[in-house]
Amino acid sequence: MSALAAIQIGEPLRLVLFLLGIMAFVGFNAAYLVWAERKGAGRFQRRVGPSEVGYAGLLQPIADAVKLLTKQVLVPPGADATLFRAAPILVIAPALISLAVIPFGPALAARDLNVGLIMIFAFGSVNVMALMLGGWSSRNKYAIISAARVVSQNVAYEIPMLLVVVTMLLVTGTMSLTKIVEDQAGGFWHWNLFRLAANPLMPLTFLTFYICMLAETNRAPFDMAEAESELVAGAYTEYAGMGFGVFFMGEYANILLGCSLATVLFLGGWQCPFGLLPGVFWFLVKLYLLVFSVIWVRWTFPRTQFYGLLNLSWKILIPLSLGTLVLSAAMIKLLGR
Amino acid sequence: MKESLREIYTGLSSLITGLGITLRQFFKPVVTVQYPHESLKMPARFRGHIELVRDPATGKPLCYACKLCEKACPTDCITVEGLKRDGEKRKSVSEYHLDFTRCSLCGSCVEACKSGAIRFSKEYNLAGTSKEEFILDLFRRLEREGK
Amino acid sequence: MSPSEVIAAPEGQRETFVLNLGPQHPATHGVLRLKLTMDGEFIVRAEPVCGYIHRMHEKMAENRSYAQFLPNTSRIDYLSAMTYTHAFVGAVERAAKLEVPPRAEFIRVITSELNRISSHLVWLGAYLLDLGGFTPLLYAFDDREKILDLLEGVTGARLTYCYYRFGGVCNDVDEAFTRGTKEFVAYMRPRLDMYRALVTDNIILRKRLVGIAPISAETCRKYGATGPVIRGSGVAYDVRRREPYSAYPLFDFEVPNFPEGDCMARYLVRMEEMAQSLRIIEQAVDRLPEGPVMATAVPRVLKLPAGDVAYAVEAARGRFMVHIVSDNKEIPYRVKLRTPSLSNLSLFEEASQGLVLPDAVALLGSLDLVIPDIDR
Known about the structure:
The complex is a heterotrimer of chains A (337), B (147) and C (376). Chain B has 147 residues and is an alpha+beta fold. In chain B, 30% of the residues lie in helices and 16% in strands. Chain B has helices at residues 2-26, 68-72, 108-112, 138-146, and strands spanning 50-52, 78-83, 92-99, 118-120, 135-137. In chain B, 20% of the residues are buried. Chain C is built from 16 helices and 8 strands. In chain C, helix 3 crosses helix 4 (81-96), helix 5 (102-131) runs antiparallel to helix 15 and helix 6 (135-155) runs antiparallel to helix 7 (175-200). The longest helix of chain C is centred in the N-terminal third of the chain and has 30 residues, at 102-131. Chain C is globular and about 70 Å long. The interface between B and C is medium-sized, with 27 and 31 residues.
């Protein structure tokens, strides 16, 4: 990895290469996370997942992509065509942009912004708007109900997420993600998750962040927006073909973004647990362990009730994160960083 | 206050127990049978469509077209015709059609038959491209099997 | 607005729209159409429209002899087919005064209870699927496979058994069946504990079911709801106790009932019923008497004397009753099938007022409807 850092490439070219790399990474992951989810779901349910197309079903995502590409993208009559077509793009574009500041390895961040953390959340809010537009412009009652639910759910869960991020800002003292990872060098006891001197309730903060990440990406058990058994497909009902495919890719891109952020903020990013050979390999291991846990949670629990979901956010998570914020501030004032 | 804290605690522990159960199931073997590549053996009493039975002594079908099965069938699926050939004491079956599109595998025909001339087969791999393929000609099927 | 405020608001003030939970919908367990008049997320009025799968079983009964109608009985409610055949066969035996040998009665009880467990397993899987938990469905179907394999070894069919005959059962059970049943009972008890840990105790499920859609015992009586619906409202009404039939008086089992009347109570009733069924099966297999499985003097062509006869059983969904009117011919004059799902559905309109859509789906699942049972 250090050898790569020594190669000097001119600035615009380096940025373009990194962005292309990110798009390829997201595309590959969006396709193969579907495969991993289906195989994982199969194993949790004591059955084999896809296994016919290619060895162990590895060509299944390609078959799905070809199927989606060959379908006609119908715009329902009376729907707002511009918004209808814009919604899938608005779901995936912010995720791609936000991945530009995540440090995958020691020299592998597309752009090391010193306000990187805030930028991610600025773009993350566009996700809500995209689902709302998609639901509203479909001119379908199921989609509108789903869009209304998505808006209240995402707004409710952004607040504890931002409070957790502010807590982490206090603890780490910087908004630049690369510096946050560099601060966690050493063994795993240096990771932010175990930084109990600055915030004694750090594991709870991580749990809050994880739950908010599940809710923001509309993943089960918080997938009321797409509640298949009630609302058919919710906000995505009227989308066919590649429109639906892009929504799907956007969902997985957002999961990747959320898990990358959790890895960087709490689990030490590309640092090795034993301080030996840091590198992008450790980042990927931690990232995919978190993604596995997201899949695991999805296939275990039923869907929460809508009011239970909002109660969880407003009555439990927000007081909890406010409390940890005040506690961290007090600890840092007393003990220094 | 204490109630809600206790609820949070029991709630979280129930979630973790649930996760543990699914993780344990993750590492157990699959319970499904990959059908076209592997298949299961049907039990002895399995109800496939009916078939004619040969007399082991003479090699001819036991059925003598008494039409009891035709009368017993609730949905009129069976059509039997018999012919009395020279030198034989009674009729023997010459045509036996089963309209499998209406058969409900109830077994009334098998029970009504006095001579044990029909029984359930073990056929379940039935697929065809037209409805006419399922008006089964059991007499011809028996002849084909004999060859 | 709270649910009671929604109902109380005068008509002109509400802006309602009609949402059609159409006949093709993942949550309606079959082809049931629900026309929901909704005010935002709250249901103001729910109108069920059934009849999409009316197959005229009662008319077919008027054109077939008693023995020819037997396959139909399995198909009215295909999930608890054995119990429905039991009702019809019992009605004919009661009218013709046929004596069923004890071994056949015990076999009927064992197979009916196995059928009840498999029906409740399908209910469990489908209900959790409606609520968003996809995995317990597969676990429930894995358990159900064992039951279906046992019954396939005896009858030859997996779902629509045509096993009972007038005067007994058509095949005897062999040693493989009794051994397999004992193994199944030993296998199923820890699985029920697993379902309790994975599903019943799960906080998310409890939030979805506890206190949702309470139905009082008076409402149940008003609409004639039976089975786990009324047992979940505190009334211990079970046909096996109130109108004992077959060999049930010989067995020791409890009738579970819970007073709360919400979705969780109905859920717990069915889970407890599975445990009680296992108890009955265990006792029946241990005490299975020897002997013939078919009565001796059954006429080849059955003619019931002129008049009425009725026979009720406790099916998995409630009280199923067959009422036969005969005019001394081979073919009945009229066969009336009183199915539990129709009565259970009729209280949906009253019970769903003011509910939000996910709660209405939870209520619909807890009523355990099988739509072909409603439409016959």
